[in-house]
C-alpha cells in the first residue's frame, strides 16, 4: 500500500496527496463511475450536478476541507467537482454507497484497542493508500483511505482513533458535515470527548456509525440526517458495531441493507466472551486480530468474501490500533490471507 506524506497548509496537504496518488485517484473515479451506473443508473454528469449542490455549502462552512480537496484536484490535474464527489460519495443518492464492516473498541489496564474490518468491493482495493499528514496547526495523522478522499480510518499522535460502519437510512442533509469529512475531523481532535462534542454541534450529513476511541474510552456515534446518539462502553469496557442501528432514532427506519449485520453483531460479542470476558483473560492484540479473522457463517462472516455483480464484497483491509502507543497494524486484504502487513506509529 502506498504511503504519501503531506505537510503544511490544507492546500499543500491536498496537493501532495494529489501528486502522490495521481493515478490511484483516477482509479477511484473510474471505480465510482461504474458504481453509480450499476447501483442507481446515474451517469457521471448527473452525479456532478448533484455534487454542485454541496460545493458552496462546504466552501462556506468547512473552508479548510474545501481547500484540501482543491489541492488534491490541482495536484492530480483533475476537476475539483470529481474530487468532491469522492468525498461525498456516502451522501450522494441518499447514502446508497456505503461500506460494510465490523468494528470494536476494547479497553484494558494497559491497552486501548480500536479495530475493524473494512469491507467493500474488490475493485477498489488497488486504490487504497496511507496518508501521513503533518499540518500547520493540528496533530499528526496516519490513516488508510481511498485515493482522493480526505478522511477515513486511522489514528493521530494524541492516541485518538476512528472507525466507520455504514448504516443505510434514506436521506441526507447538505447543511451538515459529510461522513468522510466527519472522520477527518475526529482525527484532528485531542480526545474522544472533544470529537463527539464537535460532531454533535455540526451534525452529520448522512447515516453512519462512527466509532471513536482514545486511551481512556470508546464512544460509538450513531448518526442519521436528523439524529446523533451515543453508545457508551459496556461494563467490561467494550463497544461493538456492525451495519445496522442499535439505538432507537425518532422518525427513522433502518433499511436493513446487509441482512448478515445482526449475526455479525452477535458473533463479535460472543467472540469477546471467548477471548476474555468469560475466561478472565486480558485480551491482547493477537486476540483482537483473531476476532476480525473469524469465519463463522462464511461467506457472510466477520472476515468476509462474497462474489457479486462487481465483486462485492470482501474484507479489503483490517486494522488493529492500540491507542496507548499510539500505533496500529494494518492487514491489506483479509487478515487470514494478508497480502501486506503495515505497521503505523509516530516514531519517525
TrEMBL record:
<dbReference type="InterPro" id="IPR047801">
    <property type="entry name" value="Peptidase_C45"/>
</dbReference>
<dbReference type="Pfam" id="PF03417">
    <property type="entry name" value="AAT"/>
</dbReference>
<dbReference type="InterPro" id="IPR047794">
    <property type="entry name" value="C45_proenzyme-like"/>
</dbReference>
<protein>
    <recommendedName>
        <fullName>Peptidase C45 hydrolase domain-containing protein</fullName>
    </recommendedName>
</protein>
<dbReference type="InterPro" id="IPR005079">
    <property type="entry name" value="Peptidase_C45_hydrolase"/>
</dbReference>
<feature type="domain" description="Peptidase C45 hydrolase">
    <location>
        <begin position="106"/>
        <end position="335"/>
    </location>
</feature>
Amino acid at each position: 500500500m502506498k504511503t504519501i506524506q503531506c505537510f503544511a497548509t490544507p492546500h499543500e496537504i491536498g496537493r501532495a496527496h494529489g501528486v502522490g496518488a495521481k493515478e490511484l485517484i483516477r482509479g477511484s473515479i473510474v471505480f465510482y463511475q461504474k458504481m453509480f451506473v450499476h447501483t442507481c443508473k446515474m451517469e457521471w454528469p448527473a452525479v456532478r450536478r448533484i455534487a454542485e449542490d454541496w460545493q458552496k455549502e462546504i466552501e462556506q462552512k468547512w473552508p479548510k476541507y474545501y481547500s484540501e480537496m482543491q489541492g488534491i484536484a490541482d495536484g492530480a490535474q483533475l476537476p475539483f467537482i470529481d474530487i468532491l464527489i469522492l468525498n461525498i460519495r456516502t451522501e450522494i443518492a441518499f447514502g446508497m454507497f456505503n461500506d460494510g464492516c465490523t468494528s470494536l473498541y476494547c479497553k484494558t489496564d494497559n491497552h486501548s484497542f480500536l479495530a475493524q474490518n473494512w469491507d467493500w468491493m474488490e475493485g477498489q482495493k488497488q486504490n487504497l493508500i496511507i496518508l501521513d499528514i503533518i499540518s500547520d496547526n493540528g496533530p499528526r495523522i496516519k490513516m488508510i483511505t481511498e485515493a482522493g478522499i480526505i478522511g477515513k480510518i486511522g489514528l493521530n499522535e494524541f492516541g485518538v482513533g476512528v472507525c466507520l460502519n455504514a448504516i443505510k437510512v434514506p436521506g441526507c442533509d447538505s447543511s451538515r458535515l459529510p461522513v468522510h469529512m466527519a472522520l477527518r475531523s475526529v482525527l484532528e481532535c485531542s480526545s474522544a470527548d472533544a470529537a463527539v462534542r464537535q460532531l454533535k454541534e455540526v451534525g452529520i450529513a448522512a447515516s453512519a456509525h462512527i466509532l471513536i476511541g482514545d486511551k481512556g474510552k470508546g464512544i460509538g456515534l450513531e448518526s442519521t440526517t436528523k439524529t446523533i446518539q451515543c453508545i457508551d462502553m459496556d461494563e467490561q469496557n467494550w463497544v461493538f458495531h456492525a451495519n445496522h442501528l442499535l439505538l432507537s432514532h425518532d422518525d427513522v427506519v433502518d433499511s436493513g441493507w446487509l441482512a448478515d449485520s445482526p449475526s455479525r453483531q452477535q458473533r463479535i460479542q460472543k467472540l469477546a466472551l471467548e477471548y476474555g470476558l468469560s475466561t478472565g483473560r486480558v485480551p491482547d492484540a493477537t486476540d483482537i486480530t483473531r476476532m476480525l479473522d473469524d469465519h463463522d457463517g462464511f461467506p457472510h462472516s466477520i472476515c468476509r468474501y462474497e462474489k457479486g455483480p462487481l465483486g462485492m464484497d470482501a474484507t479489503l483491509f483490517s486494522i488493529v490500533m492500540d491507542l496507548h502507543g499510539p500505533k496500529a497494524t494494518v492487514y491489506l486484504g483479509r487478515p487470514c490471507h494478508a497480502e501486506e502487513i503495515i505497521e503505523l506509529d509516530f516514531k519517525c
